[in-house]
Amino acid sequence: MAVGALDVERDGVGADGGETAVHRLGRQVFDRVAEVGDVSLFCLRTLGWIVRRRPRWSVLLPIFHAIGVQSVPVVAITGTFIGMVLAVQTYHEFQMMGLATKMGSVINISLVKELGPVLAATMLAGRVGSSMAAELGTMRVTEQIDALTALGTNPIYYLAVPRFLACFLLIPLLTLMADFMGVIGGAVVCTQVLGIDSFAYWKHSRDFVEGLDILAGVLKSFFFGSAIALISCHRGFNSGAGAEGVGKAATEAFVFSFMAILFLDFVLGLAWNAMYRSLWPQATGLL
Fold first, then answer.
1. For residues 96 and 183, what is the distance between their CA atoms, to the nearest angstrom?
2. d(CA 121, CA 114)
C-alpha cells in the first residue's frame, strides 16, 4: 500500500484522490506564465495593427470624445486639489525652517514630475480603464466579438486599436491639464490663503522647475496611457461569462493598471535620473 500511495503522489495526485501541493503550485505557475504570454501576444497584435492599418475617423472620434473630453472635469478637479493639499500639508514645516517662500518650487516640481502624471493616470485607470474593460467584456459575453470575427473584421483592429490610440494620445494632454490646475490651485492657497509673497513664490518656482521636468512627466504619461489601454482591452477580451465575469474584468483592469502605473513610474524615474545625470553631471536642481 505504501508503494502504491507513493506512485500516486509522484503522478501529482494525493492518496485521497486530490491534488498535491506541488501539483497545485506547478499548475498556478503554468497559468501565470501562460497569461503573461497571452498578454504579450495581445500587445504585439495591437501594435502590429497600428502599423498595418489606420482606423477610420468615424470610429476614432466617438472614442476620443469618451476618453478625452469626458475626462476633463475629473482630471481638472483632481489636479486642483492635489496642488491645494500639497500647499496645506507642507506650509507648517517650511514655515518653521524659514523657507515658506520656496514652497512654490517644491509643490510645482512634485506636481509636474510625479503626482500630476501618476494621479491623473490613476483616475483615468478607474474611469476609462474600467469602462473599456466592462464594455468589451459585455461584447464578449453577448458574442458581439465573435460576430465581428464571423463577418471578417479583426476585433483587435476594430475595438482595441482605437482605444489604444485614444489613451496614448490624450492621456498626456490630460496630464498637462492636471499639472496646470495643480499649479494654479497650489498658488492660490499659498498666496491668497497662507499669505506667502506671490513674487517670491513664482520666482523660486521658475528657478527650480525646468522644461525637462515637465517633459519627464509627459513622457511618463505616454507609457501610463499605453499600459491602461492594453491591460483594460485584454481584460475585456478575456472576460468571464455573465455579469460576474464582466465585473471581475473591470476590477482587474483597474487593479492591474494601477500596479503597472506604479511599476512604470519607478522604472522610468530611475532611467530618467540616470540619463539626466549622465548628460548634465554638473546640473543643479531641487531634486
1. 23
2. 11
Question: 185 vs 82, 90, 113, 174, 205, CA distance in Å?
Answer: 8, 14, 17, 16, 14
Query: pLDDT tens digits for 122-135?
Result: 988 888 888 888 88
Cα–Cα distance between 222 and 172 in angstroms, integer? Answer: 6
DSSP line for 226-259: HHHHHHHHHHHHT--SHHHHHHHHHHHHHHHHHH
Helix, strand or coil, per DSSP, at residue 200: helix
Q: What percent of the chain has pLDDT over 70?
A: 91
Average pLDDT, integer, range 78-101: 84
Residue that has been written with the C-alpha cell 540616470 in this structure: 274
Which cell numbers in the block locate residue 102? 520656496
Report CA-CA distances (Å) from 108 to 71, 96, 103, 166, 211: 22, 20, 8, 27, 12
- Confirm if 183 and 116 have CB atoms less than 8 A apart: no
Question: With 0-12 CB in 10 A as exposed, 13-18 as middle and 19+ as buried, what is 242?
Answer: exposed
Cβ neighbours of residue 211 closer than 8 Å, sequence gap 6 or more: none
What is the C-alpha to C-alpha distance for residues 128 and 259, in angstroms, rounded to an integer?
16
Give dist(CA 157, CA 162) in Å, integer.
Answer: 8
> Cβ(174)–Cβ(73) under 8 Å?
no
